[in-house]
Amino acid sequence: MSLLFLAPELNARSWVKHLRRQDPDLDLRIWPDAGPPDEVLFVLSWKHPLGVMKQFPRLKCIASLGFGVDHILRDPDLPTGVPVTRIVDAAMVAAMSTYVLTAVLTHTRQFDHYRQDQTRKTWKPRTPKQPSDVRVGVMGLGHLGLDAARMLRALDFQVFGWSRTAKSIEGVTSFSGDEGLADFLSRSDILICLLPLTPATHGILNRQTLSKLPAGAYLINVARGEHLVEEDLLAAVEGGRLAGACLDVFRQEPLPESHPFWCHPQVTVTPHVASLTYPKDVAPQIIANYHRVRAGQPPQQVVDLKRGY
Ligand code: NAP
Ligand code: GLV
Q1: 205 - beta bridge partners?
Q2: Which one, of 252, 192, 245, 244, lies nearest residue 223 by Cα?
Q3: Is the C-beta atom of 299 inside 6 A of ligand 2?
Q4: N or C: which terminus of the chain carries fewer CB neighbours within 10 A?
C-alpha cells in the first residue's frame, strides 16, 4: 500500500530523498502518477486539487505537509472518517519565532525609517520605545503563538495573548473567546496573528477589529491571508490609524504584481516564508505515521475536524 505525494506546487525531489531515507522500501507515488487508486493508503498533501481524495477507496490518512490544514479542509469532497494530520516540529516553531521577533524589532527599532533616511543621507537619531513600554498581542496561543509570546516576554515586551480557551502562561496576560477580544485588541500596540484559518477566524482582521487597536498600532500577519480583509488594512494605514504592517501571507499567493501592498512604504511583504517545512526535519514523523497506519494504528497529530485545527 502506497504513500502518495500530492503537492502539485512543490518540487518532490527533496521529499523523495528524505522519505526514502527513512524507509528505503517505501512504496512512494508522486501525483499525478498515483498508480491504481485502491493501492493508496496515505496521502501527503499541500494544496491538493479539490475532489481528488475521494478516488482512493482505501485511504486511511491525509497528512498536511505543514502546520496548517486549511488547505485540506477547504475541499468539500474529503472522504468521511479519514483522519487528517499535521506537522508539529520544533525547528519550525523556532523559525516562526525568529521571524516574529525580527518583524517586531524592525518596527520598534525603526529600521524602515533609517533605511529611508539612508537613501537621503539623513542623520536623524530617533529614541525607540523600550520593550517594557510596548504591548504586543499574540492571537493564537498554540504551538507557534505560545513560543513567540515567550520569546517576546524574554525580551521584556508586555505580552498579551488571545485564544479560544483560557490559558495560564507565566508573564503573559491571557484573554479568550469573543468576550475577551475587544479588551485584548485595545492593549495590542503590535498585533501578531498566529491563528489557524477556520470558519470562526476567516476575515477576523477587519475594519471593526482593526479599529479597536490603539492608535498607531502595527500588524504582523504570519498565519493565513484569509484572516485579513486587505482593503480594511489599507484604509486603516492610509487613514493614519495604523502605523503599518508586516505580512507574510496573502489572499492570493503569489501576491499579484498589481497589488498595492508591493509598493506601500508602510507595508513589508515577504513571500510566505515565515516558517518553512524542511523535508529532512519532518520526514521521520511522516514515515512514523505511515507505518502506524499501515499497522492498523491511529496516526498521531490528528486535527479536530469539527474545530478545524
Ligand atoms: P495550533 O497549535 O493549532 O494553535 C492554534 C491556536 O489558535 C490555539 O491557541 C487556539 O486556541 C487558537 N484559536 C483557534 N481558533 C480560535 C478562535 N476561533 N478564537 C480564538 N483563538 C482560536 O496552531 P499553530 O501550530 O500554532 O499554527 C497556527 C497557524 O499558523 C497555522 O494554522 C498556519 O495557518 C500558520 N502557519 C503559518 C506559517 C507561515 O510560514 N506563514 C507557518 C506555519 C504555520 P485554543 O488553544 O484555545 O484551542
Ligand atoms: C505553512 O504555512 C504551514 O502551515 O506550515
Answers
A1: 228
A2: 192
A3: no
A4: N
- Ligand 1 pocket mutation pick from 184, 192, 194, 197 by most atoms within 8 angstroms of CB: 194
The average pLDDT across 239-245 equals: 98
pLDDT of amino acid 8? 96
Residues 6+ apart with CB under 8 A from 171: 150, 153, 159
Q: What is the pLDDT of residues 57-78, one digit of tens each?
A: 999 999 999 999 999 999 999 9
All structural domains of the chain: 2-89+277-294 (3.40.50.720), 90-269 (3.40.50.720)
Ligand 2 probe mutation, 47, 193, 277, most atoms within 8 A of CB:
277
